[in-house]
């Protein structure tokens, strides 16, 4: 049964997307400017803050403010062009790729940010592949046009060849670096002239412009060499490209490209206007039993894609972020928890601008709500107003670094174990243990060095624990499976450890050991990831 027309109208005006990029491409700065245009902040922060500078809104964690990077994904909600936009700012660093993957399971589209000087970088390639696997439509924003970089034709050719994806330029830059004077909007047939010498970033001219007819205008604002280049580029792309194919974009076959400078807040509103015109709304989702859930279905459904502890350390809170897949959410409603097979009441619900939250009374399919959690939820859990629903599993990936923690004050060891449990439930780390010693002596697994650094900082900053990390020689973790079932024994005398959801796992020193395990157990699959079956 479909929801009421009023509820359907609210669902249809939702847009949920993530920003993805290589570190330092300007992702967090772009997020700030989008929030600024959305009217939820009235001044934008500096990403790499100097003493006394305002910190960026989306980086709420203390270490993020110190390092000037995103460590955890942030959820932000704002209204623009009569749409409700849910924006997720993802970590760009490879050490936090699992967090980014979880976020991409909760969105309908993504904005891929590219540095005009560096082009397609390593993390950009990997994140694009995740989007392609999930058939997520991708917008592309070429950033830092106010700095010297690659010419636009070279850059687009690089994107198309490296990512094997066709690009469609929506805007075109008028010069680059010191010669950057604006953009041409191919859809509206206007040039937006920007003066880098002016302090007011919104101070620009908009002039009607048709290539081949109004070319003389370019010589009024650009030097002759730049104007000649832009005229030649526009002649080439206008003659070669067909009109924008919306369906090809929604199918993930082409990516619309806009140019600008997030730092200078130029071209951001153009991207946002284009996004709100063409971004897909909430889409149907398949369940594990091959049913399809329509977002306009009257039955409320959703899944937990993120757990975050200590956003408000004064109250030692724990928030479960639920992506609503269908229907309407009402604060205080009762839901069926599929994994626990019991009924829960969702009494406390919020929406966010990073760590700042506002209590809400209702939300709709496409929205992301944070609900207060006392330990009932885990990543991948599914909820519904009636019946039992199970959406696709959210996998966790194999760590490559391992260690054990000790606390300086032995009386605080139990507190440390509780803190590690909280952080592992977030997905920030993974915990393993030898059944001979039990969970009281956990092994900590991480994807990269920065995860360990963040872990130690958070234990000190959020739990007041001074800990020492002792590295272990393991570098490989695999989950043994035979015909889809977990194995508690292997040939070859390998120790079987357990993860925190009691799944058997082997921890090995090097790839050679894994090859040996495979030779000794030829029918066994050694999985690099395991689904959080809920």
Textual characterization of the structure:
It is built from 13 helices and 34 strands. The chain is α+β, with helices and mostly antiparallel strands and 534 residues long. Strands 25, 26, 27, 28, 29, 30, 31, 32 and 33 form a nine-stranded antiparallel sheet that branches. The two termini are 25 Å apart. The relative contact order is 0.11.
- Report the major sheet: 9 strands, antiparallel
Q: Please give the radius of gyration in angstroms.
A: 25 Å
| CATH architecture descriptor name of the largest domain | 3-Layer(aba) Sandwich
Overall pLDDT score: 87
CATH class wording of the largest domain: Alpha Beta
CATH topology of the largest domain: Rossmann fold
The low-pLDDT segments are 44-60
Instruction: Tell me the total number of β-strands.
Output: 34
Query: Residue share in helices?
Result: 25-40%
* Separation, N- and C-terminal Cα atoms: 25 Å
Descriptive tags:
Elongation Factor Tu (Ef-tu), domain 3; 9-stranded antiparallel sheet; globular; 534 residues; alpha+beta; Rossmann fold; 13 helices; 8-stranded antiparallel sheet; 3 domains
Question: How do you describe this structure in short?
Answer:
The strands form seven sheets. Strands 25, 26, 27, 28, 29, 30, 31, 32 and 33 form a nine-stranded antiparallel β-sheet that branches. The chain has an eight-stranded antiparallel β-sheet with strand order 18-17-23-14-15-22-19-20. A seven-stranded mixed β-sheet has the order 2-3-1-4-5-11-6, sandwiched between helices. The longest helix has 17 residues, at 224-240.
């Amino acid at each position: 049964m479909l929801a009421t027309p009023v509820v359907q109208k609210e669902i249809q005006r939702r847009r949920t997307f993530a920003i993805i990029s290589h570190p330092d491409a300007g992702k967090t700065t772009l997020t700030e400017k989008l929030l600024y245009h959305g009217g939820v902040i009235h001044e934008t922060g500096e990403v790499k803050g100097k003493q006394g500078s305002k910190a960026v809104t989306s980086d709420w964690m203390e270490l993020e403010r110190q390092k000037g990077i995103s460590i955890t994904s942030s959820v932000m909600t704002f209204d623009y062009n009569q749409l409700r936009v849910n924006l997720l700012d993802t970590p760009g660093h490879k050490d936090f790729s699992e967090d980014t993957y979880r976020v991409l399971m909760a969105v309908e589209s993504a904005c891929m940010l590219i540095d005009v000087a560096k082009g397609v970088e390593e993390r950009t390639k990997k994140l694009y592949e995740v989007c392609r696997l999930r058939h997520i439509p991708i917008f592309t924003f070429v950033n830092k046009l106010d700095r010297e970089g690659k010419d636009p034709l070279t850059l687009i050719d690089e994107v198309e060849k490296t990512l094997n994806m066709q690009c469609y330029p929506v805007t075109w830059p008028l010069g680059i670096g010191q010669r950057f004077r604006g953009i041409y909007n191919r859809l509206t047939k206007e040039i937006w002239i920007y003066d880098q010498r002016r302090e007011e970033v919104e101070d620009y001219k908009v002039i009607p412009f048709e290539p081949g007819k109004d070319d003389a205008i370019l010589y009024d604002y650009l030097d002759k060499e730049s104007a000649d280049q832009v005229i030649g580029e526009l002649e080439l792309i206008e003659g070669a490209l067909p009109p924008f194919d919306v369906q090809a974009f929604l199918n993930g076959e082409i990516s619309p490209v806009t140019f600008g400078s997030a730092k200078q807040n130029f071209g951001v509103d153009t991207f946002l206007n284009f996004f709100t015109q063409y971004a897909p709304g909430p889409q149907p989702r398949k369940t594990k039993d091959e049913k399809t859930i329509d977002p306009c279905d009257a039955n409320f459904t959703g899944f937990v894609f993120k757990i975050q502890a200590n956003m408000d350390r004064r109250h030692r809170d724990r928030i479960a972020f639920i992506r609503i897949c269908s229907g309407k959410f009402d604060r205080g409603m009762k839901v069926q928890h599929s994994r626990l097979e019991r009924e829960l009441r969702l009494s406390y619900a919020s929406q966010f601008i990073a760590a700042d939250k506002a209590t809400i009374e209702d939300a709709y399919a496409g929205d992301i709500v944070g609900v207060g959690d006392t330990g009932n939820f885990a990543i991948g859990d599914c909820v519904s107003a009636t019946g039992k629903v199970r959406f696709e599993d959210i996998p966790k990936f194999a760590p490559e670094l391992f260690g054990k923690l000790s606390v300086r004050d032995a009386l605080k060891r139990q507190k440390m174990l509780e803190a590690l449990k909280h952080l592992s439930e977030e997905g920030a780390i993974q915990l393993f243990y030898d059944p001979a010693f039990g969970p009281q002596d956990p092994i900590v697994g991480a994807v990269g060095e920065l995860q360990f650094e963040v872990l130690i900082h958070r234990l000190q900053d959020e739990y007041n624990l001074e800990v020492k990390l002792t590295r272990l020689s393991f570098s490989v973790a695999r989950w043994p499976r035979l015909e889809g079932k977990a194995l508690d024994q292997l040939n070859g005398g390998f120790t079987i450890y357990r993860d925190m959801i009691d799944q058997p796992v082997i921890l090995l020193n090097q790839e050679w050991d894994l090859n040996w395990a495979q030779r000794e157990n030829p029918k066994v699959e050694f999985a690099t990831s395991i689904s959080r079956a809920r």
